[in-house]
Write a structure and sequence with these properties.
five-stranded parallel β-sheet; 11% strand; alpha/beta; seven-stranded mixed β-sheet
């Protein structure tokens, strides 16, 4: 048996049938089983408060001895259930009572999260294929939109302008002493939905649930945060159910000072914490990352995480298409923080593959809402500015000018002149940006085109996998930003992979938490991407996948974490002693031993609670 619960049942049967043999073998049992038993946790309260605290509550899984020890006898039904029986009940209700409404399923899981954290995380861990789309994309967008009207219970922390000057003290209101990962948003660019202000909090909550399930970070060591700097969404400001500050957003120095106070407060409270910035608008995301990435353990998932996982997808897609990353030509729709961040990661990958920086950048054309970013045009009468230049190009976008295309050229024109082999969609516009004419034009000059509609939720997807396969006569290699089912095309079944950041960010966070990695570098992100690709098995490759099955996500996160830690040792950025993990097997064992498993821990009375 591979779990403490299953082994405990076996022990009980052995003790009844062969008491002597059971007694004689007990002294060497821990050495022979290889099973990790959860450590006992001290609770600082007794009786009903335990049941009402989601960190400690086990419901009917409290055994008789534990009920007596903690003053719970008579406060729970007499029957004792295993966690497996509880999981079975939850999944039956999830599938039967809420089978037609993903948002209702999300709310049901939120309610479970607020009652019994361990059971919730076991559900996510054991059924991640089924549950991840319910707690994160695509369902989390609707959960954000309904956050105010459906608000039941506070989770995580809110930092608002009324709290300025008190952020440091506020961090001590959070009871956990050893927070490892903070996911923070200001709600300014929630998925493709725009400014949702304080109602963006479900994003960090969902992201951290995936950290726990995929990366093995203990739920007691994560903290979701929303920075309530106001909202420019007038509808929300006038909504009586809006939970945040109904004022316009802070801007300029006032905004950046707000974030700076938050970062300093969090790091002062938890010096080894990893801070993940999530869903910040482009104008803020880049400067914040540039300011903090070389000083603190932090990264921006929309820029670096999306870039890293897209790099992994392109490496895998190139292998499936019989080519290499450095030979790809990319047309990217979308010049926001995600689009530019992804393209930069791909450029870094091409440079790693042998191209110069100039050669790598020449393989990219990026389109804004005004068309392709090309050079200023000149005629005999003087400068004639293209639409991007007339509007004004930021320095970040100007760095991607490609002289091979006309500024403002349509994507179809770019395909005809530039002949890309990869369509990359990060525009977050209404669905359908990749038209049939566009995709067929790419397929006309490329035997195995790579089609990557990355925007989410699915209402923003540039095209569907079914369309990509149909318009390329089944020749496309497809990876998407949101999940889609397998596609039957003629006699073939294709399984498009979701290019999901969950393949990389839990492993990156796990590495930083376990090894004390001081900063997260571009080289670490490249190692994370290659580790993700290398984690695929031959069956997954044969199915046409570009990523491993999500059911193997813990194996992938372990591989990513080990790769990032090894790069940290190479760069001298880890605080972990190399002598403790002198080789790859010992490092793997060390990281794996630090991954939390969702099983109930024995509870004992104590004067101070442990988590």
């Amino acid at each position: 048996p591979s779990t403490p619960t299953a082994f405990r049942l076996q022990e009980q049967n052995m003790a009844k049938k062969q008491p002597l043999a059971f007694w004689l073998s007990s002294s060497r049992r821990l050495l022979s089983t290889g099973i990790r038993y959860p450590s006992a946790k001290a609770v600082g309260v007794l009786g009903p408060e335990i049941i009402h605290t989601p960190t400690w509550n086990k419901g009917m899984a409290m055994d008789v001895v534990e009920r007596d020890r903690l003053g719970l006898r008579g406060l729970l039904p007499p029957r004792v259930k295993t966690i497996e029986e509880q999981v079975d009940r939850v999944m039956r209700k999830l599938r039967e009572d809420h089978k037609d409404d993903p948002v209702e399923k999300n709310l049901y899981l939120q309610d479970l999260h607020d009652r019994n954290e361990t059971l919730y995380h076991k559900i996510v861990h054991d059924f991640i294929d089924e549950v991840a789309p319910l707690i994160y994309t695509p369902t989390v967008g609707a959960a954000c939109e309904r956050f105010g009207s459906g608000f039941r219970r506070a989770r995580g922390m809110f930092f608002s302008r009324e709290d300025r000057g008190n952020f440091g003290a506020m961090c001590h209101n959070w009871p956990q002493e050893n927070v490892a990962v903070v996911v923070v948003t200001d709600g300014s660019r929630i998925l493709g939905l725009g400014d949702l202000g304080a109602h963006g909090l479900p994003i960090p909550i969902g992201k951290l649930a995936l950290y726990v399930a995929a990366g093995g970070i203990s739920p007691a060591r994560v903290l979701p945060v929303v920075l309530d700097v106001g909202t420019d969404n007038e509808t929300l400001r006038n909504d009586p159910d809006y939970v945040g500050t109904p004022e316009p957003r802070l801007q300029g120095d006032e905004y950046f000072d707000f974030v700076d106070e938050f970062v300093q407060a969090v790091v002062a409270r938890w010096p080894h914490v990893v801070i993940q910035f999530e869903d910040f608008e482009t104008a803020k995301a880049g400067p914040l990352l540039a300011k903090y990435r070389d000083t603190y353990r932090c990264f921006n998932d929309d820029i670096q995480g999306t870039g890293c996982v897209t790099l992994a997808g392109c490496l895998s897609a190139a292998r499936n298409a019989g080519t290499s990353l450095k030979d790809m030509r990319v047309l990217c729709a979308g010049a926001g923080s995600a689009g530019l961040g992804v393209c930069q990661q791909l450029v870094d990958g091409m440079v790693h593959g042998g191209l110069s920086l100039e050669e790598a950048k020449s393989r990219f054309v990026i389109c804004t809402s005004q068309g392709a970013i090309g050079p200023r045009d000149d005629d005999n009468n003087g400068p004639l500015l293209g639409p991007n230049h007339r509007r004004g190009l930021s320095a970040e976008r100007a760095a991607w000018i490609n002289p091979a295309v006309r500024d403002g050229a349509s994507m179809l024109e770019v395909v005809e002149t530039f002949k890309p082999t990869c369509l990359l969609g990060l525009a977050a516009q209404p669905a359908g940006l990749f038209t049939e004419d566009l995709v067929r034009a790419v397929a006309s000059h490329c035997e195995r085109p790579v089609i990557m509609p990355m925007s989410n939720p699915d209402s923003k997807s540039e095209c569907t996998p079914a369309q990509a396969y149909e318009w390329t006569d089944g020749r496309a290699v497809v990876a998407t930003g949101t999940g889609f089912p397998p596609v039957r095309w003629h006699d073939n079944t294709f399984t498009p992979s979701q290019c999901n950041n969950v393949y990389v960010f839990p492993g990156i966070g796990l590495a930083a938490a376990v090894a004390g990695t001081k900063t997260i570098t571009d080289a670490m992100l490249f190692k994370a991407a290659t580790a993700c690709v290398d984690a695929m098995d031959q069956d997954e490759i044969n199915e046409g996948r570009t990523f491993p099955k999500l059911s193997r996500i813990r194996d992938v996160s372990l591989a990513v974490a080990c790769a990032v830690i090894e790069e940290g040792f190479h760069a001298g950025l880890n605080t972990l002693d190399r002598d403790l993990v002198p080789d790859a097997p010992s490092l793997c064992a060390y990281v794996k031993a630090n991954m939390w498993i969702p099983e109930y821990a024995p509870l004992v009375q104590g004067t101070t609670a442990s988590y």
